[in-house]
Design a protein that fits this description.
The structure holds 2 protein chains of 2 kinds. By secondary structure, chain A is an all-alpha fold. Chain A contains 37 helices and 2 strands. Chain A has a two-stranded antiparallel sheet with strand order 1-2. The chains are: A mainly alpha, B alpha+beta. Chain A: Keywords: Nucleus.
Chain lengths: ~900, ~450
């Protein structure tokens, strides 16, 4: 067209000169032309491959860059899109820095795929976000990322295609998991979307599975509401070590003030859920069996209602606490509306009972539904008072459930029924706290039954224990008010039953369920803390000590062989708790003290626990819970029977046990000093200790006994004449035994040897005794002197049977004892006052040396000579 | 003058020493007080709970600063162990062995309130910095915070399920000591217990902030005035330093948060106090010695020999002793001292509606009878108002008002006149001046 026009113009134009040009002839170049020719000798290509231009760039397996991949994500072919997503994942995995740099751009592009038509693509995208992108952005500006995604998620939620909607909820889940605080800002919109989707129930009538998916998402969102996740907060509370004391606390996410509008939204959802539940009910009553999917739907519907009701209760609580400033008068009306819907529609259906006989499995399912309805009912009952006849129906159901009479043949399925009961148990304390009545008695009886019957260590047991814990305060308050009420008597009975059950439970648990033991012990401790003198609770609490005996120590067989109870093997916290329980017993009797002592003597017990036991016993004594005689006899028992060399390692002392007994004695002595009235204490322990010392316990134990005497004795001694004589004979043997710990060729030069310090440790209490009573020293020296003289007559002594020439050893030991005593400056003075005793010993040694009765080798004779000489030099 | 006051649980009297000179003051006789049983009431006199070994019941004794003998003996309904007085010394709170807390008014000795606070005996009582809260620790291991507003608000306390503001139930054994920090509603509370732990609680949220495990039982704690650390005296004779500000640090072998320890006690540390002036830490020990430490260097500055028995209480007080008291004493009331009447045993059920409300001014040296009869004043005001309300009074008022009105109208007229005069004068002046200046220009 244009050409023809141009031609016609040419024809018309006379003014234009027609220029003819010859073909093939070049025009001469204009004069001002620039030469654009480039000349080079050679063309050099740095590389010749196809990927050359991507050198240094991050590429995935297929050699595509991020930019190309992102472009491909919007390709019209679903397969290409999917491949691109897979490629991105691969790329990001290989080059994390690439993601860091381009994450916002990538997310901005990728979010378009949330509403993708192809299921596989969406799935891949979900995968990509879940495994790579979101975890990689943890430290960044999470809010920005969430807001980038959220718009597209909401968009997808209103998509025409149902699948995309459901998938959008999945994405939502992912985002909430990634950054939970974001829920607060989007909650209203999220619930609005759920409401919309639930309204379209024509979709669901065909596909129960999809409804189930949607409901699952709703329930997840509901449980994200701050008041519905109380349990998780409790766990975090234990992590209190890292809190800064005076730091600024950001309390924004904690304050749920922003959620009041959400409660309004929930009010709209509740009737929808109830209606959809009602749609199912005819199928149950009519059909012979319950279809799995619809059962699942019903259960999740009920769960959803439950969570919503809980939110209402929470909202109501908050309103009552602070008169709301928003002041919405119709709020209460709405709540009434919902409760009336529940009352009219849901609760009359209860209990759901089949028209036909159902199989066992279906029966179980039905029970599940009933339980869920009951839970909703009790939840609502906390909030508003429901009609009493209805309440009675539900209470009866609860009682049956507790007694296990709900499902006849289904006893086998314990785990399931347990799970159901655990949900109902928390409502018992709430009901009880409203005051005693006919029904509390019945319920508590059923509760006691289930508490007894449940397996030790099971979750049900734990739930029972926490329920008892909750009931303590109301029951105690009721009991303290009036005692004439017959219901109160029942209350007391059940309380007594629980308290009596606790020690049995502890023994049953053994060391297999430390967590459960801990809960039980904590409960026991709390009961103990409340049990003040002469109240009925205190009597009940004191009764447990008989049963607790076996917890610390069990007697086995007729000969009374003692064996450690489960206490020893429990973790440290449990041990601590159980010891604290002992402190609150108003009187600790001898049997339990015996079993505790037996437990203390066990070699398995950690020394720190041993010291803690003694400490707590002493605290209990200071409170007057233990008689002084019992208290001291425990001390003596511990010292006397503590095995320094436990069985198995015969004869060989282990340093750990030695150290333990030493520090234990130090502790005991300091406590004995704290008791006050040393003379009195000495009076009590003197006879016992002297009696036991005569039985010649091992060296370490005797030393500790002596230390105890020394602690409470004074200068001059208060020991009786009789015991001094007994001690005199005993101590000589004790000193000789102690000195034998030294090596035979003991030398003055090695002053800091370990043996020397041990021997000195053994000797020290004797020094104190000698210092306080010179007569005792005289006696000891005399006995030693005669021992030396008689040593030739007793060829074999008790303690040194291993040595063939034991008399030599004995003389040697006596000599070193004298030397050691002489080394101490204070003892030196006292020694000088008992010259004749020392002299007689030396005399005896010299006579022994010269006696011909015993045959001696020259070497032996020389040794004795040496000793004799040294004694002489030192003592002169 | 800063005085260290110490008592023991076995009868050894109350020892007083000047903290800065070390001079021993008067030793007050016959006092055997359990831990937390010795207080100074507003610096005016000493009060202590007394457990006599012979009789089963306990009593509360008062001493004036100037006399060694017991001034006043009170016999409460049950044995009182811990005592606490608010800072001006107007009220005394006492914890009973059955778990009740008693609150007396010092000036009249009236028992204002008694309430069941704990399941078991109360072991320690502390008033908060602003005296509005009372914190109690008990043998049952709980620490409870009581608001005095709540305690005296009959209506609210009937409605409420519990009287306490917070109940901290973290301790497994008896609570041995409780201290509260500064910062009013946002303060921290530190409690020590026989379960070998100290716990730090938040007063505002009621949450457990910290749990510090020690290698021995802690019997006494004291906060550093700046709240950087607190000191904990243990039964093994050590004084542990525990950091409050730092985040969890393990700097020593003793455990988390424990920064260090120092010890010169062979026996257990039973009580701790902080000097009012100077950075001094004072510790009492089971061996009857009182040691004054430099809190920075942990060196002993001074030592007071108290007695053989264990020291159970230490207070640092600025006593209000004035020289005039000796002169006045001869003329003073029946007991011949400046002590208030004994604390009553039971609360009076019939309360006088026009009860006097005694107010003790902190600055007043002699605060014997400073009482404001506020209710009288109010009732007279009411009467006056009622009189005003009568018809005659209103007529009188009207007359008066009319009179006033006329007067003010006259005044207004006068003002108006004056204003007009002034206005005319001014206008005239201006015009004249204008003409003058014009004529001046013309002349030029």
């Amino acid at each position: 067209m244009t050409r023809s026009k141009a031609n016609s113009k040419k024809h018309r134009g006379v003014d234009f000169k027609k220029i003819r040009r010859k073909i093939g002839k070049k025009l001469p170049p204009p004069k001002n032309a620039t030469n654009t020719e480039i000349k080079s000798k050679a063309i050099v290509l740095p590389e010749q491959s196809v990927a050359a231009d991507k050198a240094g760039l991050a590429v995935n397996k297929k050699g595509l860059t991020l930019k190309e991949l992102l472009q491909q994500t919007s390709h019209h072919n679903a397969k290409v899109r999917r491949d691109a997503l897979v490629g991105i994942k691969d790329l990001f995995n290989k080059f994390p820095t690439e993601m860091k740099l381009h994450k916002y751009a990538a997310i901005e592009k990728l979010r378009e795929r949330i509403g993708d038509d192809d299921k596989v693509v969406r799935k891949t995208l979900y995968d990509l976000f879940k495994s790579v992108i979101l975890p990689g952005c943890k430290e960044d500006n999470q809010e920005l990322i969430v807001s980038l995604l959220m718009a597209y998620i909401f968009n997808a939620m209103t998509h025409f295609s149902f699948d995309i909607r459901i998938m959008a909820f999945d994405f939502l889940d992912l985002v909430l998991l990634f950054y939970p605080p974001s829920f607060a800002s989007f909650a209203e919109k999220i619930f609005q979307n759920y409401e919309d989707i639930l309204r379209k129930n024509q979709y669901f009538s065909q596909d129960r599975g999809k409804l189930k998916d949607a409901l699952a998402g709703l329930i997840r969102c509901l449980s994200l509401l701050p008041w519905n996740k109380g349990e998780t907060n409790l766990v975090n509370k234990n992590e209190n070590g890292r809190i800064l004391l005076h730091a600024f606390h950001d309390d924004m996410p904690r304050s749920p003030n922003g959620f009041s509008h959400i409660i309004k939204k929930l009010r709209d959802i509740a009737p929808l859920l109830i209606n959809s539940f009602l749609e199912f009910t005819p199928s149950i009553t009519a059909m012979a069996s319950i279809e799995g999917k619809s059962f699942g739907c019903m259960l999740s519907i009920l769960h959803g209602i439950d969570l919503i009701i809980r939110s209402f209760v929470y909202g109501a609580d908050k309103d009552s606490e602070s008169p709301s400033m928003e002041g919405e008068p119709n709020g209460a009306m709405w709540d009434v509306k919902i409760s009336s819907i529940l009352l009219k529609k849901l609760f009359p259906l209860f209990p759901l009972s089949p028209a036909h006989h159902l199989s066992e499995k279906d029966n179980n399912r039905l029970v599940d539904l009933n339980m869920a309805v009951a839970k909703i009912f009790f939840e609502l009952n906390e909030w508003i008072c429901l009609p009493p006849d209805l309440l009675e129906k539900f209470l009866e159901f609860m009682e049956h459930a507790l007694l296990g009479q709900v499902c006849e043949g289904a006893r086998s399925d314990n785990a399931v029924s347990e799970k159901r009961l655990i949900q109902l148990l928390p409502f018992i304390p709430k009901f009880v706290s409203r005051g005693a009545s006919y029904w509390t008695t019945r319920l508590l009886q059923a509760f006691t039954y289930i508490f007894r019957e449940s397996k030790p260590g099971s979750l049900l047991k734990l739930a029972c224990l926490s329920a008892i814990e909750d009931m303590l305060t109301p029951i105690q308050a009721m009991l303290s008010l009036e005692t004439s009420n017959p219901e109160n008597l029942k209350l007391q009975e059940s309380l007594m039953a629980w308290i009596a059950e606790l020690p049995l439970l502890l023994i049953q648990l053994g060391d297999n369920h430390p967590a459960c033991s801990e809960v039980a012990l904590r409960l026991q401790l709390h009961i103990g803390q409340r049990a003040f003198s002469n109240s009925s609770l205190a009597c009940m609490y004191d009764d447990i000590q008989d049963k607790l005996q076996n917890f610390y120590c069990t007697c086995q067989g007729e000969e009374g062989k003692k064996c450690c109870g489960s206490f020893v093997r429990l973790p440290r916290e449990c041990q601590e708790l159980s010891l604290c329980c002992l402190y609150y017993l108003s009187h600790l009797d001898l049997p339990i003290l015996k079993s505790i002592a037996c437990c203390c003597l066990s070699p398995e017990l950690d020394p720190s626990v041993l010291f803690r036991i003694i400490e707590i016993l002493h605290s209990a004594y200071r409170e007057g819970h233990i008689k002084i005689a019992d208290h001291l006899s425990i001390f003596i028992t511990l010292v006397l029977h503590f095995k320094v060399s436990p069985e198995g390692s015969s004869g060989l002392k282990s340093d750990i046990f030695c150290q333990t007994i030493k520090s234990m004695t130090t502790l005991l002595c300091s406590y004995m000093a704290q008791i006050g009235g040393n003379y009195l204490v000495l009076n009590i322990i003197e006879k016992v200790i002297i009696d036991h010392i005569l039985l010649k316990p091992p060296l370490d134990n005797s030393c500790c006994l002596l230390r105890m005497i020394v602690t409470v004795d004074s200068k001059p001694t208060r020991l009786s004449e009789q015991s001094i004589i007994t001690l005199g004979t005993y101590l000589s043997q004790y000193l000789i035994d102690a000195a034998q710990c030294l090596p035979e060729d003991y030398d003055e030069q090695c002053k800091s040897s370990t043996q020397l310090t041990t021997v000195h440790y053994y000797l020290l209490p004797c020094f104190f005794l000698f210092d306080r009573c010179h007569k005792l020293l005289n006696l000891v020296l005399k006995t030693m002197g005669s021992a030396v003289a008689e040593s030739s007559l007793w060829p074999i002594s008790d303690n040194c049977t291993r040595h063939p020439n034991n008399w030599l050893v004995r003389v040697n030991a006596v000599a070193s004892v004298l030397l050691l005593i002489n080394k101490d400056p204070k003892m030196q003075q006292i020694m000088s006052s008992c010259k004749e005793g020392v002299d007689s010993i030396i005399q005896n040694v010299s006579s022994l040396q010269s006696s011909e009765k015993i045959s001696m080798t020259i070497e032996e004779r020389h040794k004795i000579k040496c000793r004799y000489d040294r004694l002489k030099i030192l003592l002169r | 003058m800063e005085v260290v006051v110490a008592s023991s649980s076995v009868d050894a009297g109350i020892g007083c020493w000047d903290l800065h000179t070390g001079a021993e003051q008067l030793r007050h006789k016959s006092c055997s007080s359990p831990p937390h049983g010795l207080i100074s009431v507003g610096g005016r006199f000493l009060a202590s709970s007394h457990l006599s070994p012979l009789s089963s019941g306990g009593s509360v004794l008062f001493w004036s600063w100037s006399k060694p003998q017991v001034g006043v003996r009170c016999f409460p309904a049950e044995t009182i162990k811990p005592l606490s007085a608010n800072h001006p010394g107007t009220y005394i709170a006492g914890g009973g062995v059955s778990g009740g807390i008693y609150l007396w008014e010092v000036e009249t000795g009236r028992l204002l309130k008694k309430w069941n606070a704990h399941y078991r005996a109360v072991t320690c009582l502390v008033f908060s910095e602003d005296d509005s809260l009372l914190i109690s620790g008990s043998e049952d291991g709980s620490v409870r915070v009581w608001s005095l507003f709540m305690i005296f608000d009959d209506l609210r306390s009937q409605e409420a399920t519990h009287l306490y503001e917070h109940s901290f139930t973290g301790h497994a054994l008896r609570v041995t000591d409780v201290v509260i920090g500064y910062g009013c509603s946002n303060a921290i509370i530190v409690s020590a217990s026989e379960d070998r732990t100290c716990k730090v609680w938040s007063l505002s949220t009621g949450a457990l902030l910290r749990n510090i495990v020690f290698p021995a039982i802690i019997d006494a704690i004291v906060l550093d005035p700046a709240e950087h650390v607190f000191y904990a005296g243990s039964r093994d004779g050590k004084i542990f330093i525990v950091a409050l500000h730092t985040e969890s640090l393990v700097t020593s072998n003793d455990g988390m948060h424990i920064v260090g320890s120092f010890s010169n006690h062979s026996k257990s540390v039973t009580c701790l106090a902080y000097g009012i002036s100077g950075n001094l830490l004072i510790s009492g020990s089971e061996d009857g010695m009182i040691r004054v430490w430099n809190a920075r260097t942990h060196n002993i500055v001074r030592m007071f020999k108290y007695a053989k028995g264990p020291v159970s209480n230490i207070c640092v007080v600025r006593p209000e002793i004035d020289s005039t008291s000796h002169i006045l004493q001869s003329s003073s009331r029946k007991q011949g001292s400046d002590l208030p009447p004994p604390l009553e045993k039971y609360a009076n059920s019939v309360e006088d509606s026009d009860a006097k409300t005694p107010i003790v001014l902190c600055g007043a040296k002699r605060c014997a009878k400073v009482s404001y009869l506020s209710s009288h004043a109010i009732s007279s005001h009411v009467k006056e108002l009622q009189r005003h309300g009568s018809a005659a009074a209103s007529e009188l008022e009207m007359e008066k008002l009319k009179d006033d009105y006329q007067k003010s109208m006259q005044m207004v007229n006068q003002w108006k006149k004056m204003y007009e005069n002034l206005h005319q004068f001014c206008v005239k002046e201006l015009l004249d001046g204008g003409q003058a200046s014009v004529s001046d220009e013309n002349n030029k």
